[in-house]
Design a protein that fits this description.
5-stranded mixed beta sheet, alpha/beta, 16 strands, elongated, 8-stranded mixed beta barrel, 518 residues
Protein backbone atom coordinates (compact mmCIF):
# COMPACT_ATOMS: atom_id res chain seq x y z
CA UNK A 1 0.00 0.00 0.00
CA UNK A 2 2.89 2.37 0.78
CA UNK A 3 4.34 1.83 -2.69
CA UNK A 4 0.95 2.52 -4.27
CA UNK A 5 0.59 5.74 -2.29
CA UNK A 6 4.09 6.74 -3.36
CA UNK A 7 3.20 6.21 -7.00
CA UNK A 8 0.07 8.33 -6.66
CA UNK A 9 2.07 11.14 -5.05
CA UNK A 10 4.63 10.90 -7.83
CA UNK A 11 1.83 11.17 -10.39
CA UNK A 12 0.66 14.39 -8.73
CA UNK A 13 4.22 15.75 -8.67
CA UNK A 14 4.73 14.86 -12.31
CA UNK A 15 1.51 16.73 -13.15
CA UNK A 16 2.91 19.78 -11.34
CA UNK A 17 6.08 19.62 -13.42
CA UNK A 18 4.03 19.34 -16.58
CA UNK A 19 1.91 22.32 -15.57
CA UNK A 20 5.03 24.46 -15.16
CA UNK A 21 6.28 23.36 -18.57
CA UNK A 22 2.88 24.04 -20.12
CA UNK A 23 2.82 27.54 -18.62
CA UNK A 24 6.22 28.13 -20.13
CA UNK A 25 4.87 26.92 -23.45
CA UNK A 26 1.98 29.37 -23.36
CA UNK A 27 4.29 32.25 -22.46
CA UNK A 28 7.25 31.56 -24.75
CA UNK A 29 6.16 28.93 -27.25
CA UNK A 30 8.35 26.23 -28.72
CA UNK A 31 8.03 22.63 -29.84
CA UNK A 32 10.52 21.42 -27.20
CA UNK A 33 8.33 22.57 -24.33
CA UNK A 34 5.26 21.10 -26.03
CA UNK A 35 7.00 17.72 -26.13
CA UNK A 36 7.91 18.07 -22.45
CA UNK A 37 4.32 18.87 -21.51
CA UNK A 38 2.98 15.89 -23.50
CA UNK A 39 5.61 13.57 -22.02
CA UNK A 40 4.75 14.77 -18.53
CA UNK A 41 1.06 14.09 -19.03
CA UNK A 42 1.88 10.61 -20.30
CA UNK A 43 4.18 9.87 -17.39
CA UNK A 44 1.59 11.11 -14.87
CA UNK A 45 -1.15 8.98 -16.39
CA UNK A 46 1.22 6.01 -16.45
CA UNK A 47 2.06 6.42 -12.77
CA UNK A 48 -1.60 6.74 -11.81
CA UNK A 49 -2.62 3.76 -13.93
CA UNK A 50 0.21 1.63 -12.56
CA UNK A 51 -0.78 2.53 -9.00
CA UNK A 52 -4.44 1.65 -9.50
CA UNK A 53 -3.52 -1.57 -11.28
CA UNK A 54 -1.32 -2.53 -8.34
CA UNK A 55 -4.08 -1.63 -5.90
CA UNK A 56 -6.47 -4.09 -7.55
CA UNK A 57 -3.83 -6.79 -7.89
CA UNK A 58 -3.46 -6.56 -11.66
CA UNK A 59 0.33 -6.11 -11.36
CA UNK A 60 2.94 -6.78 -8.75
CA UNK A 61 4.80 -3.75 -7.38
CA UNK A 62 8.45 -4.26 -6.61
CA UNK A 63 10.97 -1.70 -5.25
CA UNK A 64 13.04 -1.55 -8.47
CA UNK A 65 10.00 -0.66 -10.58
CA UNK A 66 8.90 1.96 -8.07
CA UNK A 67 12.42 3.45 -8.11
CA UNK A 68 12.44 3.67 -11.92
CA UNK A 69 9.04 5.36 -11.98
CA UNK A 70 10.16 7.75 -9.23
CA UNK A 71 13.33 8.66 -11.17
CA UNK A 72 11.30 9.31 -14.31
CA UNK A 73 8.94 11.52 -12.35
CA UNK A 74 11.81 13.51 -10.81
CA UNK A 75 13.37 14.08 -14.25
CA UNK A 76 10.12 15.49 -15.60
CA UNK A 77 9.71 17.69 -12.52
CA UNK A 78 13.27 18.96 -12.97
CA UNK A 79 12.50 19.72 -16.62
CA UNK A 80 9.46 21.73 -15.66
CA UNK A 81 11.41 23.61 -13.02
CA UNK A 82 14.17 24.39 -15.50
CA UNK A 83 11.53 25.70 -17.92
CA UNK A 84 10.24 28.00 -15.19
CA UNK A 85 13.74 29.33 -14.54
CA UNK A 86 14.34 29.99 -18.24
CA UNK A 87 10.96 31.65 -18.50
CA UNK A 88 11.72 34.10 -15.71
CA UNK A 89 15.39 34.70 -16.37
CA UNK A 90 14.68 37.34 -19.00
CA UNK A 91 12.50 39.29 -16.56
CA UNK A 92 15.31 39.77 -14.06
CA UNK A 93 16.70 43.06 -15.45
CA UNK A 94 13.27 44.75 -15.34
CA UNK A 95 12.66 43.45 -11.82
CA UNK A 96 16.04 44.76 -10.75
CA UNK A 97 15.25 48.05 -12.47
CA UNK A 98 12.21 48.41 -10.24
CA UNK A 99 14.41 47.81 -7.20
CA UNK A 100 16.63 50.72 -8.20
CA UNK A 101 16.09 54.13 -6.66
CA UNK A 102 13.28 55.07 -9.04
CA UNK A 103 9.61 55.69 -8.32
CA UNK A 104 6.64 54.15 -10.08
CA UNK A 105 3.97 56.30 -11.75
CA UNK A 106 1.70 56.68 -8.71
CA UNK A 107 4.54 57.74 -6.40
CA UNK A 108 5.90 60.11 -9.08
CA UNK A 109 2.54 61.84 -9.48
CA UNK A 110 2.34 62.35 -5.70
CA UNK A 111 5.85 63.82 -5.68
CA UNK A 112 4.93 66.04 -8.63
CA UNK A 113 1.88 67.40 -6.78
CA UNK A 114 4.06 68.23 -3.76
CA UNK A 115 6.72 69.85 -5.95
CA UNK A 116 4.11 72.05 -7.65
CA UNK A 117 2.66 73.15 -4.31
CA UNK A 118 6.13 74.03 -2.99
CA UNK A 119 7.10 75.85 -6.19
CA UNK A 120 3.84 77.80 -6.14
CA UNK A 121 4.54 78.94 -2.58
CA UNK A 122 8.19 79.77 -3.27
CA UNK A 123 7.66 81.37 -6.68
CA UNK A 124 9.92 78.85 -8.44
CA UNK A 125 9.30 76.46 -11.30
CA UNK A 126 8.98 72.72 -11.92
CA UNK A 127 9.95 70.95 -15.13
CA UNK A 128 8.71 67.52 -16.14
CA UNK A 129 10.52 65.39 -18.70
CA UNK A 130 8.69 62.48 -20.35
CA UNK A 131 11.30 60.09 -21.75
CA UNK A 132 11.07 57.05 -24.00
CA UNK A 133 13.72 54.79 -25.51
CA UNK A 134 13.05 54.98 -29.24
CA UNK A 135 12.88 51.86 -31.42
CA UNK A 136 13.23 49.50 -28.48
CA UNK A 137 10.98 47.05 -30.35
CA UNK A 138 13.63 46.83 -33.08
CA UNK A 139 16.25 45.80 -30.51
CA UNK A 140 13.96 43.09 -29.17
CA UNK A 141 13.15 41.88 -32.70
CA UNK A 142 16.85 41.69 -33.59
CA UNK A 143 18.32 40.27 -30.39
CA UNK A 144 15.46 38.85 -28.34
CA UNK A 145 13.43 39.88 -25.29
CA UNK A 146 16.10 38.93 -22.75
CA UNK A 147 18.70 41.09 -24.52
CA UNK A 148 16.23 43.98 -24.67
CA UNK A 149 15.54 43.67 -20.96
CA UNK A 150 19.28 43.79 -20.24
CA UNK A 151 19.58 46.96 -22.34
CA UNK A 152 16.76 48.58 -20.37
CA UNK A 153 18.40 47.44 -17.12
CA UNK A 154 21.60 49.23 -18.15
CA UNK A 155 19.69 52.42 -18.98
CA UNK A 156 17.78 52.29 -15.69
CA UNK A 157 21.05 51.85 -13.80
CA UNK A 158 22.39 54.99 -15.49
CA UNK A 159 19.24 56.97 -14.75
CA UNK A 160 19.12 55.81 -11.13
CA UNK A 161 22.52 57.38 -10.55
CA UNK A 162 21.73 60.61 -12.40
CA UNK A 163 19.26 62.64 -10.24
CA UNK A 164 20.46 65.41 -7.94
CA UNK A 165 18.85 66.67 -4.72
CA UNK A 166 15.95 68.57 -6.32
CA UNK A 167 15.25 65.92 -8.95
CA UNK A 168 13.07 62.80 -9.06
CA UNK A 169 13.23 60.03 -11.64
CA UNK A 170 10.57 57.39 -12.25
CA UNK A 171 9.94 54.41 -14.48
CA UNK A 172 6.45 54.22 -16.00
CA UNK A 173 6.96 51.23 -18.29
CA UNK A 174 9.62 49.00 -19.81
CA UNK A 175 11.05 51.76 -22.01
CA UNK A 176 9.21 54.78 -20.60
CA UNK A 177 10.54 57.10 -17.90
CA UNK A 178 9.83 60.47 -16.33
CA UNK A 179 11.80 63.05 -14.39
CA UNK A 180 11.05 66.29 -12.57
CA UNK A 181 13.21 69.05 -11.21
CA UNK A 182 12.50 72.09 -9.07
CA UNK A 183 14.42 75.08 -10.35
CA UNK A 184 14.73 78.82 -10.24
CA UNK A 185 17.51 78.96 -12.82
CA UNK A 186 16.86 77.46 -16.26
CA UNK A 187 20.46 76.29 -16.41
CA UNK A 188 19.89 73.58 -13.81
CA UNK A 189 16.85 72.31 -15.72
CA UNK A 190 18.83 72.11 -18.96
CA UNK A 191 21.60 70.28 -17.09
CA UNK A 192 19.14 67.59 -15.99
CA UNK A 193 17.91 67.15 -19.56
CA UNK A 194 21.48 66.83 -20.79
CA UNK A 195 22.23 64.09 -18.24
CA UNK A 196 19.05 62.19 -19.14
CA UNK A 197 19.82 62.40 -22.84
CA UNK A 198 23.37 61.16 -22.23
CA UNK A 199 22.16 58.24 -20.08
CA UNK A 200 19.64 57.15 -22.71
CA UNK A 201 21.69 57.65 -25.87
CA UNK A 202 25.18 56.36 -25.03
CA UNK A 203 25.78 52.94 -26.66
CA UNK A 204 24.94 49.94 -24.48
CA UNK A 205 27.16 46.86 -24.57
CA UNK A 206 25.60 43.57 -23.50
CA UNK A 207 27.51 40.30 -23.63
CA UNK A 208 29.94 41.67 -26.19
CA UNK A 209 27.24 43.18 -28.42
CA UNK A 210 27.02 46.97 -28.65
CA UNK A 211 23.73 48.62 -29.62
CA UNK A 212 22.86 52.26 -30.17
CA UNK A 213 19.82 53.55 -28.32
CA UNK A 214 18.03 56.85 -28.71
CA UNK A 215 15.92 58.85 -26.31
CA UNK A 216 12.92 61.01 -27.16
CA UNK A 217 12.27 63.64 -24.48
CA UNK A 218 9.29 65.95 -24.04
CA UNK A 219 9.35 68.78 -21.48
CA UNK A 220 6.57 70.78 -19.82
CA UNK A 221 7.10 73.53 -17.22
CA UNK A 222 5.01 74.74 -14.27
CA UNK A 223 3.45 77.30 -14.20
CA UNK A 224 3.75 78.49 -17.81
CA UNK A 225 2.41 75.31 -19.46
CA UNK A 226 -0.09 74.29 -16.78
CA UNK A 227 -0.75 74.54 -13.05
CA UNK A 228 -2.28 71.04 -12.81
CA UNK A 229 -0.01 68.04 -12.28
CA UNK A 230 -1.83 65.61 -14.57
CA UNK A 231 -2.17 68.19 -17.35
CA UNK A 232 1.50 69.06 -17.05
CA UNK A 233 2.46 65.41 -17.45
CA UNK A 234 0.15 65.07 -20.46
CA UNK A 235 1.77 68.12 -22.04
CA UNK A 236 5.23 66.59 -21.57
CA UNK A 237 4.07 63.40 -23.30
CA UNK A 238 2.60 65.42 -26.18
CA UNK A 239 5.88 67.29 -26.59
CA UNK A 240 7.76 63.98 -26.58
CA UNK A 241 5.77 62.81 -29.60
CA UNK A 242 7.24 65.70 -31.60
CA UNK A 243 10.80 64.65 -30.77
CA UNK A 244 12.92 63.23 -33.57
CA UNK A 245 16.40 61.78 -33.93
CA UNK A 246 17.65 65.21 -35.04
CA UNK A 247 15.78 67.07 -32.26
CA UNK A 248 15.44 64.59 -29.37
CA UNK A 249 14.34 67.21 -26.80
CA UNK A 250 11.09 69.12 -27.41
CA UNK A 251 9.41 71.66 -25.12
CA UNK A 252 5.65 71.92 -24.92
CA UNK A 253 4.22 74.32 -27.48
CA UNK A 254 0.44 74.82 -27.31
CA UNK A 255 -0.26 75.30 -31.06
CA UNK A 256 2.14 72.57 -32.17
CA UNK A 257 0.97 70.14 -29.53
CA UNK A 258 -2.66 70.80 -30.40
CA UNK A 259 -1.74 69.48 -33.84
CA UNK A 260 0.02 66.56 -32.15
CA UNK A 261 -3.11 65.81 -30.13
CA UNK A 262 -5.05 65.77 -33.39
CA UNK A 263 -2.49 63.40 -34.88
CA UNK A 264 -2.75 61.09 -31.87
CA UNK A 265 -6.50 60.93 -32.38
CA UNK A 266 -5.92 60.12 -36.04
CA UNK A 267 -3.36 57.48 -35.03
CA UNK A 268 -5.97 55.81 -32.81
CA UNK A 269 -8.44 55.86 -35.72
CA UNK A 270 -5.78 54.48 -38.06
CA UNK A 271 -4.97 51.63 -35.70
CA UNK A 272 -8.66 50.75 -35.50
CA UNK A 273 -8.99 50.96 -39.29
CA UNK A 274 -6.09 48.56 -39.80
CA UNK A 275 -7.55 46.12 -37.25
CA UNK A 276 -10.96 46.02 -38.94
CA UNK A 277 -9.63 46.00 -42.51
CA UNK A 278 -10.65 49.59 -43.20
CA UNK A 279 -7.60 50.41 -45.34
CA UNK A 280 -8.16 50.09 -49.10
CA UNK A 281 -5.47 48.85 -51.47
CA UNK A 282 -5.56 50.37 -54.97
CA UNK A 283 -3.38 49.46 -57.92
CA UNK A 284 -1.73 51.82 -60.43
CA UNK A 285 -0.52 50.30 -63.72
CA UNK A 286 3.11 50.23 -64.82
CA UNK A 287 3.51 49.98 -68.58
CA UNK A 288 6.00 49.12 -71.28
CA UNK A 289 6.74 52.50 -72.88
CA UNK A 290 7.19 51.00 -76.35
CA UNK A 291 3.63 49.71 -76.79
CA UNK A 292 1.66 50.56 -73.65
CA UNK A 293 1.38 46.96 -72.44
CA UNK A 294 0.76 46.68 -68.72
CA UNK A 295 3.65 44.83 -67.07
CA UNK A 296 2.73 45.33 -63.41
CA UNK A 297 0.88 47.28 -60.77
CA UNK A 298 2.00 49.24 -57.73
CA UNK A 299 -0.10 48.62 -54.61
CA UNK A 300 -1.05 51.89 -52.89
CA UNK A 301 -2.76 52.25 -49.51
CA UNK A 302 -5.79 54.54 -49.23
CA UNK A 303 -7.72 55.44 -46.07
CA UNK A 304 -11.41 56.32 -46.42
CA UNK A 305 -12.06 57.76 -42.94
CA UNK A 306 -15.72 57.33 -41.93
CA UNK A 307 -16.00 60.93 -40.64
CA UNK A 308 -13.16 62.88 -42.27
CA UNK A 309 -13.44 61.40 -45.74
CA UNK A 310 -10.44 60.30 -47.79
CA UNK A 311 -7.18 61.03 -45.95
CA UNK A 312 -4.19 61.36 -48.32
CA UNK A 313 -1.23 58.97 -47.88
CA UNK A 314 1.01 62.03 -47.42
CA UNK A 315 -0.93 62.65 -44.19
CA UNK A 316 -1.50 59.19 -42.72
CA UNK A 317 1.80 57.48 -43.65
CA UNK A 318 3.87 59.89 -41.47
CA UNK A 319 1.36 59.37 -38.64
CA UNK A 320 1.78 55.60 -38.98
CA UNK A 321 5.56 55.96 -38.86
CA UNK A 322 5.50 58.35 -35.91
CA UNK A 323 3.12 56.24 -33.82
CA UNK A 324 4.59 52.82 -34.49
CA UNK A 325 1.83 51.64 -36.83
CA UNK A 326 3.82 51.39 -40.05
CA UNK A 327 4.60 47.72 -39.46
CA UNK A 328 0.92 46.82 -39.01
CA UNK A 329 -0.06 48.94 -42.00
CA UNK A 330 2.69 47.44 -44.15
CA UNK A 331 1.72 43.89 -43.20
CA UNK A 332 -1.92 44.61 -44.07
CA UNK A 333 -1.04 46.03 -47.50
CA UNK A 334 1.42 43.18 -48.15
CA UNK A 335 -1.07 40.46 -47.25
CA UNK A 336 -3.96 42.09 -49.11
CA UNK A 337 -1.92 42.80 -52.27
CA UNK A 338 -0.44 39.29 -52.40
CA UNK A 339 -3.83 37.65 -51.88
CA UNK A 340 -5.53 39.76 -54.56
CA UNK A 341 -2.66 39.46 -57.05
CA UNK A 342 -2.73 35.68 -56.66
CA UNK A 343 -6.36 35.72 -57.89
CA UNK A 344 -5.63 37.79 -61.01
CA UNK A 345 -6.03 35.79 -64.21
CA UNK A 346 -3.01 37.56 -65.74
CA UNK A 347 0.60 37.14 -64.52
CA UNK A 348 1.48 40.77 -63.77
CA UNK A 349 3.80 41.73 -60.93
CA UNK A 350 2.62 43.66 -57.89
CA UNK A 351 4.99 46.21 -56.31
CA UNK A 352 4.88 47.15 -52.62
CA UNK A 353 6.71 49.96 -50.83
CA UNK A 354 8.76 49.26 -47.69
CA UNK A 355 9.49 52.05 -45.19
CA UNK A 356 12.77 52.59 -43.30
CA UNK A 357 11.20 51.32 -40.07
CA UNK A 358 9.94 48.16 -41.74
CA UNK A 359 13.31 47.42 -43.31
CA UNK A 360 14.89 47.73 -39.86
CA UNK A 361 12.71 44.88 -38.52
CA UNK A 362 14.67 41.63 -38.48
CA UNK A 363 11.62 39.47 -39.17
CA UNK A 364 10.42 41.37 -42.27
CA UNK A 365 11.78 38.75 -44.74
CA UNK A 366 9.99 36.04 -42.76
CA UNK A 367 6.73 38.03 -42.88
CA UNK A 368 7.07 38.48 -46.64
CA UNK A 369 7.66 34.75 -47.03
CA UNK A 370 4.61 34.05 -44.87
CA UNK A 371 2.45 36.36 -47.01
CA UNK A 372 3.61 34.59 -50.16
CA UNK A 373 2.94 31.14 -48.70
CA UNK A 374 -0.49 32.11 -47.36
CA UNK A 375 -1.61 33.77 -50.61
CA UNK A 376 -0.01 31.33 -53.03
CA UNK A 377 1.51 34.20 -55.03
CA UNK A 378 4.73 33.09 -56.80
CA UNK A 379 7.70 35.08 -55.43
CA UNK A 380 8.69 36.19 -58.95
CA UNK A 381 5.45 38.21 -59.12
CA UNK A 382 6.24 40.30 -56.03
CA UNK A 383 8.45 43.39 -56.14
CA UNK A 384 9.66 45.27 -53.07
CA UNK A 385 10.37 48.98 -53.52
CA UNK A 386 12.90 50.73 -51.28
CA UNK A 387 14.20 54.29 -51.44
CA UNK A 388 17.80 55.49 -51.28
CA UNK A 389 17.11 57.05 -47.87
CA UNK A 390 16.04 53.65 -46.51
CA UNK A 391 19.41 52.16 -47.43
CA UNK A 392 21.39 55.20 -46.29
CA UNK A 393 19.77 55.05 -42.81
CA UNK A 394 21.43 51.70 -42.01
CA UNK A 395 23.38 50.47 -45.01
CA UNK A 396 24.56 47.10 -43.63
CA UNK A 397 21.19 46.11 -42.19
CA UNK A 398 19.30 47.28 -45.28
CA UNK A 399 21.52 45.39 -47.72
CA UNK A 400 21.27 42.26 -45.58
CA UNK A 401 17.46 42.46 -45.74
CA UNK A 402 17.52 43.06 -49.51
CA UNK A 403 19.68 39.97 -50.01
CA UNK A 404 17.14 37.97 -48.04
CA UNK A 405 14.37 39.29 -50.31
CA UNK A 406 16.33 38.18 -53.37
CA UNK A 407 16.91 34.77 -51.80
CA UNK A 408 13.13 34.38 -51.60
CA UNK A 409 12.92 35.02 -55.34
CA UNK A 410 11.38 38.49 -54.87
CA UNK A 411 12.40 41.40 -57.11
CA UNK A 412 13.80 44.60 -55.58
CA UNK A 413 13.35 48.08 -57.09
CA UNK A 414 15.22 51.26 -56.13
CA UNK A 415 12.51 53.89 -55.71
CA UNK A 416 12.75 57.70 -56.07
CA UNK A 417 16.18 57.41 -57.67
CA UNK A 418 18.13 60.65 -57.94
CA UNK A 419 16.82 62.37 -54.81
CA UNK A 420 19.49 61.04 -52.41
CA UNK A 421 23.10 62.03 -51.81
CA UNK A 422 24.67 58.69 -52.73
CA UNK A 423 22.73 57.45 -55.74
CA UNK A 424 25.73 55.98 -57.57
CA UNK A 425 27.07 54.25 -54.48
CA UNK A 426 23.67 52.75 -53.66
CA UNK A 427 23.20 51.61 -57.26
CA UNK A 428 26.51 49.78 -57.25
CA UNK A 429 25.98 48.13 -53.87
CA UNK A 430 23.17 45.74 -54.82
CA UNK A 431 21.80 44.03 -57.96
CA UNK A 432 18.51 45.90 -58.22
CA UNK A 433 15.90 44.67 -60.67
CA UNK A 434 14.51 48.11 -61.47
CA UNK A 435 15.32 51.81 -61.08
CA UNK A 436 12.37 54.14 -60.52
CA UNK A 437 13.19 57.66 -61.68
CA UNK A 438 11.77 60.19 -59.23
CA UNK A 439 8.67 62.07 -60.39
CA UNK A 440 10.31 65.45 -59.66
CA UNK A 441 12.53 65.01 -62.75
CA UNK A 442 9.62 63.92 -64.95
CA UNK A 443 7.58 66.96 -63.91
CA UNK A 444 10.33 69.34 -65.16
CA UNK A 445 11.51 67.45 -68.21
CA UNK A 446 9.62 69.59 -70.74
CA UNK A 447 11.70 72.54 -71.93
CA UNK A 448 14.40 72.10 -69.28
CA UNK A 449 17.68 70.95 -70.82
CA UNK A 450 19.37 70.58 -67.44
CA UNK A 451 16.71 68.17 -66.13
CA UNK A 452 16.70 66.34 -69.46
CA UNK A 453 20.45 65.88 -69.07
CA UNK A 454 19.93 64.34 -65.63
CA UNK A 455 17.29 61.99 -67.02
CA UNK A 456 19.64 60.94 -69.83
CA UNK A 457 22.37 60.27 -67.25
CA UNK A 458 20.05 58.05 -65.19
CA UNK A 459 18.95 56.14 -68.28
CA UNK A 460 22.62 55.72 -69.21
CA UNK A 461 23.35 54.31 -65.76
CA UNK A 462 20.51 51.87 -66.21
CA UNK A 463 21.98 50.65 -69.48
CA UNK A 464 25.46 50.41 -67.95
CA UNK A 465 24.23 48.32 -65.01
CA UNK A 466 21.68 46.51 -67.22
CA UNK A 467 18.82 47.63 -64.98
CA UNK A 468 15.59 48.83 -66.61
CA UNK A 469 14.37 52.31 -65.65
CA UNK A 470 10.75 53.21 -64.85
CA UNK A 471 9.76 56.88 -64.94
CA UNK A 472 7.20 57.89 -62.30
CA UNK A 473 4.60 60.64 -62.44
CA UNK A 474 4.00 60.80 -66.19
CA UNK A 475 0.99 63.06 -66.63
CA UNK A 476 1.31 64.57 -70.12
CA UNK A 477 1.74 63.18 -73.61
CA UNK A 478 4.82 65.39 -74.07
CA UNK A 479 6.51 63.79 -71.05
CA UNK A 480 5.66 60.33 -72.38
CA UNK A 481 7.02 61.18 -75.86
CA UNK A 482 10.30 62.59 -74.52
CA UNK A 483 10.95 59.66 -72.18
CA UNK A 484 10.18 57.08 -74.84
CA UNK A 485 12.45 58.84 -77.33
CA UNK A 486 15.27 58.80 -74.75
CA UNK A 487 14.91 55.03 -74.34
CA UNK A 488 13.07 54.82 -71.01
CA UNK A 489 11.77 51.26 -70.74
CA UNK A 490 8.78 51.66 -68.40
CA UNK A 491 6.43 54.33 -67.15
CA UNK A 492 3.82 55.02 -64.49
CA UNK A 493 1.50 57.96 -63.99
CA UNK A 494 -1.98 59.38 -64.40
CA UNK A 495 -1.58 59.52 -68.18
CA UNK A 496 -1.51 55.71 -68.32
CA UNK A 497 -3.90 55.04 -65.47
CA UNK A 498 -5.00 56.20 -62.04
CA UNK A 499 -4.95 53.88 -59.02
CA UNK A 500 -7.98 51.59 -59.01
CA UNK A 501 -9.43 48.72 -57.04
CA UNK A 502 -9.85 46.34 -59.99
CA UNK A 503 -6.69 45.87 -62.08
CA UNK A 504 -7.15 44.67 -65.63
CA UNK A 505 -4.63 42.91 -67.91
CA UNK A 506 -5.15 45.58 -70.60
CA UNK A 507 -6.72 49.02 -70.31
CA UNK A 508 -7.24 51.71 -72.93
CA UNK A 509 -5.30 54.43 -71.12
CA UNK A 510 -1.73 53.22 -71.73
CA UNK A 511 -2.33 52.25 -75.35
CA UNK A 512 -4.14 55.51 -76.04
CA UNK A 513 -1.23 57.39 -74.51
CA UNK A 514 1.18 55.58 -76.83
CA UNK A 515 -0.92 56.34 -79.89
CA UNK A 516 -1.22 60.01 -78.92
CA UNK A 517 2.49 60.34 -78.17
CA UNK A 518 3.55 58.65 -81.40
Amino acid sequence: MTTILTLLLLAAAVCAGGTIAALHLVRRGGAGWLALAVATAGAALGCAGYAFAAAFGAVTVDPVTALIVAAAGMLVIAGGGFAWLVDHKGEAPVALARMADMLDRAAFEQDLARAIAEADAAGTQVAIAAVTVDRFEGIVASYGQRFGDLVLGAIVARLAGAPLTDETFAQFGAAEYAALTRFADRTSMLDMLRRIELACTAPVEIEGVSVDVHAMIGVAIFPQDSRAATTLLDHAVLARHRATADAPVCFYDAPLDAQMREQRALAADLKAAIARGGIDVLYQPQVDMSDGTIIGYEALARWPHPLRGAIPPADFIPIAERHGLIGELGDWVLGRACSEAARWNFPCKVAINVSPQQLGEADLPARIHEALMFSGLPPRRLEIEVTESVIAANRAQALHALRQFKALGVAVALDDFGTGYSSLEVLGSFPFDKIKLDRSFVAKIEGNDQVLGIVRAVLGLGRTFRIPVLAQGIETEAQYRILRAEGCAMGQGYLMGRPGANPMPVVDGPRAAVRSAA
